[in-house]
Amino acid sequence: MKLAAIDLFPQGGFRGFGPLGLENNEAFNADSVFVKFLSSTLGLMSIIAIIWFLFLLITGGYGYMTAAGDKGKLESAHKKIISGLVGLLVVVFGIFIIKLIGWLIGIPNILQIPSLFSEITK
């Protein structure tokens, strides 16, 4: 079908915006797509958490420099830095927390999504 000499349907069909693992039929299964999505999401969330920590560290440090001895400002800056550090530690040690929870509930491979599906469906 053509409209003003422009192909409305491209040769070979429509394609997505980037490598999602859907290009090859043999790679098109729910496990691989979900694992890639989950891995990308966790990576993005980790990067955002690190950037947020750096933001809190810089603003807390600036608050310390500009406090000029004011106890309220010093405490606010201190709280920013400590909360950023605690948040970063939760993100960094989050994988260990998830593994511990998996071990406690009896699913040792909780971070391996395809084998987790097979473990749950047993």
Please characterize this protein's 3D structure:
The structure is a single chain. The protein has 122 residues and is mostly helical. It has one domain. The protein has 4 helices and 2 strands. It has a two-stranded antiparallel sheet with strand order 1-2. A hairpin with a 2-residue loop joins strand 1 and strand 2. Helix 1 (30-65) packs antiparallel against helix 2 (71-92).
Number of strands: 2
What characteristic shape results from the CA principal axes? elongated
Tally of separate domains: 1
Strand numbers in spatial order across the main sheet: 1-2
Q: Roughly how many Å is the radius of gyration?
A: 24 Å
N- and C-termini, Cα separation = 50 Å
Instruction: Give the low-pLDDT segments.
Output: none
Which bin fits the share of residues in helices? 55-70%
**SS-based structural class?**
mainly alpha
The count of helical stretches stands at 4
Instruction: Give the amount of beta strand, in percent.
Output: under 5%
Main sheet specs: 2 strands, antiparallel
Brief account:
This protein is mainly alpha-helical and 122 residues long.
Key phrases:
122 residues; mainly alpha; two-stranded antiparallel ribbon; 4 helices; 3% strand; elongated
